[in-house]
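Hi all, long-time lurker, first post. I run a small reading group and we've been trying to get comfortable going from sequence to structure in the token notation. Rather than ask abstract questions, I figured I'd post a concrete chain and ask someone more experienced to write out its structure so we can walk through it together at our next meeting. Sequence below, copied exactly:
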Amino acid sequence: MTLILALGAFPGILFALIKIFNRNEDLSNRILGIAIFFYSTMLLLVFLGKYSYLNYSKEFIVVANTFISVSWPLFYLYILLITGATDRLSRKDAFHFAALTGYAALFVVPVVLMNDLSDLFFRLSFFYSLTVSSVYSILMLLRIRTYKNTRLHYSAEDEPTFSWLQASVLLWLFIDALQFIFVPLRPHLIACCPLIPVVHEFTLYAAATSWIYLFAYFAFSHPDIFSQSRKMASSLQEEKAPPSPLNEEYAQTIAARLEKVMKEQKPYLDLDLTIATLADLVHVPPYLLGRYLNLRLGKNFMTYINELRVEEVKSRFMDPALDNTTILEISLQAGFRTKSAFNNFFKRSTGMTPTEYRRSLKNQK
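-- Answer (accepted) --
Happy to help. Here is the structure in token form:
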């Protein structure tokens, strides 16, 4: 059964090293890689201990649980980065490593220096690490919820990926809840039904391993989510700016400038376009452009841009010179970063898949 741990530990470490040492990764991905490295190393230590490659004692478990106090604050910092709450780490972020410092001082140092520690000591060390992961998981959920509720930068096409992110955090909270319930009641549960520990261990290992694969799969299949921390942060500057009136005359000025820029320069074809970049082209502050889009057009920045990209795709579908160009290539040329984002938004906009829409145009000829 403990082989399940190896199935999570080894791929997890490999994935982490790719993220850490890939020169093309940004800060958020490197933080993610470091967090998963420590988490996967913890799984590896438990696996080696279970198979007697290492001394699997209570003291060993305390040392292994140290990595929980390292990885979960890092996962939280990662969430802050990809949701644009910050675009860099600062001195104040060092506060999040207080959990690790506390665990090391309260539990690791005594284990190294002292013998015959009480069972209560080891129980407290277990609940400390469990509390750290639970608290930071809840903080992650709150941050994701805040991001999703901010209309200025969150669009419907983000829903699948951030729903997955939320689901992965909920999976870990399930693991924590399993531990909180089972460990204190273990003697009673074993007496009641000897199979319960087996079921608990299998469920725990399977969930912990699945969690690694979830992160790895979506990190590679949704590169747009995992490489936009700085762009997101710059796009959020309008929220931090002081309130400013948006009268009718100024709204018309923004509308005229926006229409001219979009018609002549087509900046939406740039897949890295942010609201800050567009605001610079239109010569208005980013927060006022965001306010105009929300109040006057009733949509956020990403929805507005992707609607223009869809229109661009539709016009290219009608060009006979592009009949042999693939749909994916056209969508990338129109500014969409991934096939999944394009397909989802196109169908919501037109009621048809890109293939169906293109076929209907050919049937009309």
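A couple of things your group might point at:
The radius of gyration is 25 Å.
Residues 233-364 form a domain with the Arc Repressor Mutant, subunit A fold (CATH 1.10.10.60).
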